Amino acid sequence: MIRMNGKMSTLTSLALVSALALSACANGDGQEEPTDEPTAGAEASAEGAAADAAEDGGEDEEQVEPSDRPTHEAGGPSPRLAVTYDGGVSVIDGATLEVLGDFSAQGFVRVNPAGDGRHVFLAEGDSFRLLDAGTWGEPHGDHNHYYTTDPLLTDIAVDGDTPAHVVAHHGIGVLFFDGTGEYHWFDIADLDAESEIETESAATEGVHHGVAVVMEDGTRFETLEDRSGARVLDAEGEELARAENCPGVHGEAAGPDPIIAVGCEDGALIWDGSEFQKIDGGAEYARSGNLFPAEGSPIFLADYRTDQDVPMTEVALINAETLELTTADIGAAYNFRSLARGPEGEALVLAEDGQLHVIDAETGERIDQVQIMDEWTEPEEWQQPRPAIRVIGDIAYITEPEAQTIHMVDLTSLEIIHSAELDFVPNEIAAADGRPAHGAQEGEHDHGDHDHGDHDHGDEDHDHDHDHDHDDEDEHDH
């Protein structure tokens, strides 16, 4: 299905290592436990999954029972990628870049991580449909055990009018429907390929392209109907705070607790756990519609547009502690799928000059850049494929639709360490890192405390003002 090339011998953090003393726990002999470094699957599990996928023809024509899938123990986390294309979605091994599963889907399909390191939601038609990427970790004392199985596109779905944003926050997932302004939330730990998703729901003040976050204590953050800002409600639905000074509110990301940030057409809006704080964008029109956090950092990377008719070439660095917004000039155009954060919190921008630019998030200074592909131009319609970037650990996965290729970039050395040709044109990409979610405990699989934005809850892919008709696209992007 693919032709592979590249410096496989240089795979660093995603090296195909053999299982490391998998029996140490059972034997109690003090041998080294399985590494917690991301390996994208031990060879045995990767080969087994690939063989199973090949045996099935990589297709979903034949119904597979979730419980019939074989389980393989891995020597470490086994990242996988869900990549959409016209008419379907493929699950790709994060180390070999082999296609492990291929599934048909109806219409234009969007994809967002569920927040548990394993599952992905497809926004398909009038529902969020659950895709099991087949990789996960389970806490075991002072370490984790890791497993893989065959990917599976399930029939489990949450239905609603115009599925849009997916947010995961402290073990609670939220699905937002633009067509009604309603959102449904659920315990991420309960996601399972064999069980329907039990949700609670609430409605915002009206229909709009919005987002909501539900917190551990039941407090809810939601955008306003006229997109002028956001409000916070307690668990009983009583309003605690409201801000109406964030026109065109869009995007959402969580910083160090209890910070939640959204973008505005004139800066950004910060919820600090007790009140809203507005950050000025530095111009009458200074739109930041997609925010990307880094673990432990109060600084968000965001897109930055001061002219609706001119391509973006600057990014914003929004500091939720100092309430300051600074900008960094990339020197080349980029778009809403171009942004990510690196392992040290660095800002990553995949620009139309074909380069991956690395920016110091604290100073805004350019650190380095690496040529990934030839120059390219953003397509006219936002649904059309364009290069996209996702990061797992210190590996960046970058799609190149024109060449039907996906690249792995080692962010520590800034080298392309592996590339693979696909037999389809890649569009959207989401990552399942195969790790237990932060805060997970043995026997209590709490899949929460994931930052979102960098983990792609989907906000970055739901901003479609681009360089064309901002008002129309931003309202009709789903």
TrEMBL record:
Gene3D superfamilies: YVTN repeat-like/Quinoprotein amine dehydrogenase. Keywords: Signal. Residues 27-81, 435-478 are annotated as: Disordered. Residues 1-26 form the signal peptide. The gene is aztD. Residues 53-65 have a biased composition (Acidic residues). Residues 40-52 have a biased composition (Low complexity). Residues 441-469 have a biased composition (Basic and acidic residues). This is Zinc metallochaperone AztD. SUPFAM superfamilies: YVTN repeat-like/Quinoprotein amine dehydrogenase (SSF50969). It comes from Nesterenkonia rhizosphaerae. It comes from the Bacteria.
